[in-house]
C-alpha cells in the first residue's frame, strides 16, 4: 500500500509543528514547508523522524509565487499529497489609523496570497487522483474581527471565504476542504499578549494548546470525518460563540 503524505505549510513551530507531529503519529509521511532550513524546522524534523515517519523539507517563502511554484514542482512533480494543511501566517498588529502599507501588504501576501501560491499548484494533480483533504488554519480573528488586527483579521477571514468556495468547486472530486479557527493558543506568536486581559473573555478561562488544534486537524484528515466539508471548526474555548 502506498504511504500517505501530508504537506504542512508553515511547520517550523507552534501549531504547525504540532500538526506535523500529530499527522506523523497518524501514519503520514511529512513534507514540511518553511522559510529557513537551519532554524526551528530542525526540531520538527527530529520529532517527526522519532515517530518513524519520513520527513522532507520544502524551503521557500510562501509570499513568493515563483519560488513556491518551483519548490512544489520539484517535490511533487505530477503527484499530489493526500493532505494539505495551510498554516503559514504572520501578524503585524497596529491600529488601522496608524497601519503602514508594509504592515498591510506583508500580512496579506503571506497569510492570503500564500494560500494561492502553495495550494493552487497542487489542485490539478489532487483532482486527478480524486481524493484528498485540505485543511486551512484561520483564526478567531477571522471569524469575529479584532481591534488592532485589521490586516490579520482580513487575511484570516479571506481564507475562510476561499476555503468555502473551494469546497463547492472540488467536493465532487472526493476532496474535503475545511477550516480550523484557533483562538488564543499558547505559541511564540501569542507569548507577549496580555493574558490578564484575554483570559477573562474566554469562558474556559485558559489558553489552548497547539496540540488541541492539531487534534482537530487529525480528525479532519482521518476516516471519521468523511461527511464534513466546507466547515469552520473553532478551537477557542468559547472566545467566539
What are its keywords?
241 residues, alpha/beta, single chain, 7 strands, seven-stranded parallel β-sheet
C-alpha end-to-end distance = 42 Å
| Rg, alpha carbons | 17 Å
- Could you name the CATH topology? Rossmann fold
Find the count of extended strands (DSSP E, 2+ residues).
7
Please tell me the total number of domains. 1
Percent in helix: 40-55%
> Would you list the SSEs in sequence order as H and E?
EHEHEHEHHEHHEHHE
Strand order of the largest sheet: 3-2-1-4-5-6-7
CATH class: Alpha Beta
CATH homologous superfamily descriptor: NAD(P)-binding Rossmann-like Domain
Strand content: 15-25%
Instruction: Please give the CATH architecture.
Output: 3-Layer(aba) Sandwich
Please tell me the overall pLDDT.
Answer: 96
Characterize the largest beta sheet: strand count, sense, and whether it forms a barrel.
7 strands, parallel
Structure, described:
The chain is globular. It has a seven-stranded parallel β-sheet, with helices on both faces. With about 240 residues, the chain is an alpha/beta fold. The protein has a single domain, classed as NAD(P)-binding Rossmann-like Domain (Rossmann fold, 3-Layer(aba) Sandwich), CATH 3.40.50. The model has no long low-confidence stretch (mean pLDDT about 95). The protein has helices at about 15-25, 40-50, 65-75, 100-120, 125-130, 140-145, 150-170, 195-200, 210-220; strands at about 5-10, 30-35, 55-60, 85, 130-135, 175-180, 230-235. The protein has nine helices and seven strands, in the order βαβαβαβααβααβααβ. About 40% of the residues lie in helices and about 15% in strands.
Amino acid at each position: 500500500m502506498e504511504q500517505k503524505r501530508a504537506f504542512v505549510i508553515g511547520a517550523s513551530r507552534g501549531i504547525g509543528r504540532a500538526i506535523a507531529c500529530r499527522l506523523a503519529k497518524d501514519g503520514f509521511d511529512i513534507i514540511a514547508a518553511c522559510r529557513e532550513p537551519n532554524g526551528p524546522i530542525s526540531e520538527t524534523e527530529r520529532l517527526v523522524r522519532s515517530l518513524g515517519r519520513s520527513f522532507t523539507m520544502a524551503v521557500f517563502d510562501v509570499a513568493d509565487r515563483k519560488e513556491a511554484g518551483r519548490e512544489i514542482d520539484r517535490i511533487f512533480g505530477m503527484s499530489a499529497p493526500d493532505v494539505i494543511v495551510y498554516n503559514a501566517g504572520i501578524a503585524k498588529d497596529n491600529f488601522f489609523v496608524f497601519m503602514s502599507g508594509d504592515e498591510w501588504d506583508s500580512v496579506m501576501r503571506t497569510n492570503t496570497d500564500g494560500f494561492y501560491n502553495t495550494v493552487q499548484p497542487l489542485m490539478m494533480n489532487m483532482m486527478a487522483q480524486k481524493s484528498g483533504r485540505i485543511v486551512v488554519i484561520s483564526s478567531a480573528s477571522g471569524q469575529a474581527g479584532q481591534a488592532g488586527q485589521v490586516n490579520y483579521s482580513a487575511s484570516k477571514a479571506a481564507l475562510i471565504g476561499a476555503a468555502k468556495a473551494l469546497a463547492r468547486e472540488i467536493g465532487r472530486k472526493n476532496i474535503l476542504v475545511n477550516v480550523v479557527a484557533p483562538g488564543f493558543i499558547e505559541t511564540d506568536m501569542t507569548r507577549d499578549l496580555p493574558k490578564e486581559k484575554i483570559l477573562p473573555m474566554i469562558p474556559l478561562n485558559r489558553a489552548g494548546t497547539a496540540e488541541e488544534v492539531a487534534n482537530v486537524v487529525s480528525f479532519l484528515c482521518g476516516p471519521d470525518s468523511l461527511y464534513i466539508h466546507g466547515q469552520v471548526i473553532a478551537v477557542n474555548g468559547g472566545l467566539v460563540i
